[in-house]
Amino acid sequence: MAPVTRRTSFPKVVIERDSDSEQSSSDEEQEEDETLEEEQEQEEENGVIENAKIEKLEVGFDANRKGKTPITLTLRKVCKVCKKPGHEAGFKGATYIDCPMKPCFLCKIPGHTTLNCPHRVTTEHGVVPAPRRKTSKPLEYVFERQLRHAIPTIKPKYMIPDQVNCAVIRYHSRRVTTLEFHPTKNNILLSGDKKGQLGVWDFEKVHEKVVYGNIHSCIVNNMRFNPTNDCMVYSASSDGTVSCTDLETGISSSPMNLNPDGWQGPNTRKMLYGMDINYEKGLVLVADSFGFLHLVDMRSNHRNGDAVLIHKKGSKVTGIHCNPIQPDILLTCGNDHYARIWDMRRLEAGSSLCSLEHNRVVNSAYFSPISGNKILTTSQDNRLRIWDSIFGNMESPSREIVHSHDFNRHLTPFKAEWDPKDPSESLAVVGRYISENFNGTALHPIDFIDTSTGQLVAEVMDPNITTISPVNKLHPRDDILATGSSRSLFIWKPKERSEPVEEKDERKIVVCGKAEKKRGRKKVDNSDESDDDGFISKLKKPKLKQTEWKLSRCSKKDNR
DNA sequence: AACCTATGAGACC
DNA sequence: TGGTCTCCCTAGGT
Fold first, then answer.
1. Alpha helical stretches, state H, A174-306
2. Cα(A180)–Cα(A223) distance, rounded to whole angstroms?
3. How many CB atoms lie within 10 A of CB A149?
4. Beta-strand pair A58-59/A12-16
5. What global pTM score does this model have?
6. Closest residue by Cα to the C1' atom of nucleotide C2?
7. CA neighbours within 13 Å on the CB side: how many for A543?
8. What proportions of chain A, in percent to the nearest 5, are helix, strand and coil?
9. Which residues numbered 341-400 in chain A sit less than 7 A from strand B, measured from CB?
10. Does the CB of A124 sit below 7 A from strand C?
11. How do A220-226 and A229-237 pair as beta strands?
């Protein structure tokens, strides 16, 4: 095909300019034109631009109107990210092509794109080794002498729940924002959504599910069971209330309401995010979007004491975690880019024991589940951070792991969570933002990461889950992963242990909601299984063969 | 198929 | 410090 020059083939737009600025405008235009010409020549040499890419558009203005001289602009396809011509960012099929003018979307360092990011291709998935430091602090000495032996150094073989066992499709009416397993009933999963609804699902019986719709008026951010009565669950919501709900009846009370006058505009409205329970003191700890910590006494179900400023005034506190061994020790994190450790026994503004600095907002911070001695944080700078010992040097994290979990206002924030069953306190699970081209489908895996090495132990995905899965919870006792992805819930089990469900290789799926028909999923006769708002169907077998499922494990020799 | 939008954080002034 | 503008892999709806 004959070469096409920009001047003849690019669309032209003629706009009016005031005559006094005409000269300079034309000069600028000329400069711009020449730059474009050079770029275009470069592109043609590289074969980047083809004729098909060039949009034909002629827009004419009346040049003689009001006696103003028209100038001519040319339009061409530009990158939607940087607005510059010569390349285009976006999906090419199922592969996303980054804008080369922007820093890497994964590690945020300029000079390369996600496709060739060194953190993407290494098996360690972007771990930054722990810096060598002096370990001369007395507390670290105590740790080494008295506590280190209690932590096993031999890691078990990880049982990765990597196969969808059952699911409720479009169970909630808005996206799932939080998940919690029942503390004693192994097959009960609680879920909260953006609309304020609370779901209770028995995933062994699959179709036994209920959604309570009148507990909160918007996002449920956190849920915790009452440790003395596992029928009652506390929930913190962006509506500014803490609710205490009876799971049997769905009847709830509000021990705390920070917006007693209702909606007074977005600037005054207080929202509740982080929440945890200090079981020794019988207190619910909950933090708001203005930097304050509030307490609710579980016995009286009333507020207890005054709010304490624990993060920058006016900034959101995104998470609270009580240490599993010493519940008076608190870990909080927030939009002020800090995670902080506190002692509840002397809690006042500015009295934190320790401040852990991050580059961006900290979505979550958790003590390790067994010893409570490690800390894992998820920050919006696309890094997971691990502190190996709260008794050691806390000035900088022991490791930083580059991992794609970007902030997106339309997604629930990603939170990396420990595996509560891993005695070595290494394994963590976190959803991934960027997709992989997986046999022509863009899938967003759920990553299992060995936080002691930064190694990606497994990336699990299912061809039927095409949406991002920011909410993940590992079962406290069983090898089960619960995933909240958009409006749906999924239960994963290890392939080795997946129990055959009626027919081999078929998974139990409950489908709710009208949108399912649109997707062409086959409606089946469910007269004896279905409830009012849904129907049950069997998902088709995976479109991909199992051998093609992407699952990598760290080899045994890598485990000390 | 092509819009529309709910909505959060950061940059900038 | 506060208002305003911008924004790269959403998901579901019209």
1. none
2. 7
3. 9
4. parallel
5. 0.79
6. A267
7. 11
8. 15, 35, 50
9. 360-361, 380
10. no
11. antiparallel
Q: Strand B: which residues 450-489 of A lie within 7 A (CB)?
A: none
Distance A408 CA to B9 C1' (A): 9
- pLDDT tens-digit series, residues A33-43: 444 444 444 44
pLDDT above 90 for A74:
no
Higher pLDDT among residues A25 and A392, named by residue: A392
Which bases in strand B are touched by protein, i.e. have an atom under 7 Å from a CB? Answer: 6-10
Contact between A274 and A241 under an 8 Å Cβ cutoff? The reply is no
**Cα–Cα distance for residue pair A457/A150, rounded to 1 Å:** 24
**CA distances for A110 relative to A82, A95, A114, A453, angstroms:** 14, 20, 10, 25
Distance between CA atoms of residues A183 and A199, nearest Å? 16
Indicate the DSSP class of residue A225. Answer: E
Q: Which nucleotide is nearest to A266 (CA to C1')?
A: B7
Question: What's the CA–C1' distance between A515 and C13, in Å?
Answer: 9
Mean pLDDT across A81-99? 87
Q: Which of A1-15, A195-209, A290-304, A395-409 has the lowest average pLDDT?
A: A1-15
Q: Give the tokens for residue A153.
A: 């150094």
Which nt is closest to the CA of A273, judged by C1'? Answer: B8
- The set of residues, in sequence order, having a beta carbon less than 8 Å from that of A141 and lying 6+ positions away, is A135
Tokens linked to A261 = 């006058």
